[in-house]
Design brief:
Layout (H helix, E strand, L loop, with lengths): L3 H16 L41 H16 L7 H20 L2
Length: 105
């Protein structure tokens, strides 16, 4: 059984649908007649990229806190934005280079 608000809600939905403009997507066809796939949405992130691997490591709480604090301070003074994984990556790359130079690996 419909209540007294059913018809009012239906009328509002209809008015809203009629008021919204219809947007048509333009698709461009290349000269050769084939359709090139278009990338839609956000760019691929680290989690879904084959170039990155998630790892787990134990790091002292104080070290994690200091890194987060420095990242926030960098952002506040307008330095280029880094995230936590960028800092870890940079430290690991530095360690690899150091090992190769000093231990002739």
């Amino acid at each position: 059984m419909a209540n007294k608000f059913t018809s009012m809600n239906a009328a509002k939905r209809l008015e809203k649908a009629e008021a919204e403009p219809i947007i048509e997507r333009k698709t461009e066809t290349p000269l050769n007649g084939t359709h090139a796939p278009k990338k839609v949405g956000r760019p691929q992130g680290k989690k879904s990229s084959d170039d990155f691997r998630q790892i787990t490591a134990y790091v002292r709480k104080e070290t994690v806190r200091d890194i987060k604090k420095l990242l926030i301070e960098r952002d506040e003074i307008g330095l280029p934005k880094l995230d936590f994984s960028n800092v870890i990556e940079e430290a690991l790359v530095h360690w690899i280079e150091h090992e190769k130079r000093h231990n002739r690996l």
